Amino acid sequence: MDNTLLDKGFTPQPLSATQYQELDDNGFTILENVIDAAWLHQLRERFEDLVKAEGERGGIEAGQMKGVRRLADLVNKGEVFDDIYVHPSLLTAALHIFQQPFKLGSLNGHDPLPNDGLQVLHGDGPPPATPDGPFTVVNSMWMLDDFTRENGATRIVPGTHRKTENIDDCIDDRMADHPEQIHLEGPAGSVAVFNGSIWHGSYINRSSRPRRTLHCAFFSRERKQQTDQRTHLRPETADRLSPLARYILDVD
Question: Which terminus of the chain is more exposed, N or C, with fewer CB under 10 A?
Fold first, then answer.
C-alpha cells in the first residue's frame, strides 16, 4: 500500500475476486458502468470540441498517429477530465498491479478512423525482470463508445505481461494477428485496465462508427512522465486540484 495515497484522501474501492484474478493471470480486466450517462455525454462533447479546435495539431504534445484522431495533455483541457485519474476503482486496480507508489504518466484521446488505426503489438512498459514484476506501467482505456471487434477494439494477448523477453525476440511480424489475441470489447461507459507490459495494440476500425477512448496511463514514480505535469500544468488547472490529484499528477 502507498500510505501517501491514503494520507492524500484516497479511499480504496475493492474490486471483485474475479477482477483481481484477471489482473494477475490475464494482465487486464474490464470495469463496467464506471462512466454514467451524463458524464459520458460531457466527455464525448469535449472530445469532439477539442478535435475540432486543434485540427491537425491534435495530440502533438504526446505524439500523433496516422489514421487516428488524437488528443493529448487532457489534464489541462477541461474540468470534465478531472475525475478520471483519481477514480477510486482505477487507482485500486493500479495499486494492485504496481504494489509501489505511482503517478500519472499521461491522459490522452484516441479514435481510429474507418479502415485505419492498426498498431503493432507492443507493450507500454518494459518486460518485467521476473514474471511477478516489478511492473512500471499501468494503462486504462475509458470507452466513450461501444468497443467491438468491428470498430477496432484493442487487441491484447492475455498473460504476456509476465514475459521477460523483448517482444521483438518473440514475434516476427508485430502488425499481424497473434494466434492468442483477443479484443477488449465492452459497452460505452466501461473502463479496461491493463498491465502496461502486456502485448496489445489498436485494431482496424472496419465500421463507419467512432471508437473514441481516453487513455489514462500511470507510471511508477521514478519514471519520467510522457507529459511532464509540472511543466505543463496551467494555473486554472492547479487552482482546482485536490491534494490527491496533486499527488497523482506529481506537481508538488
Answer: C
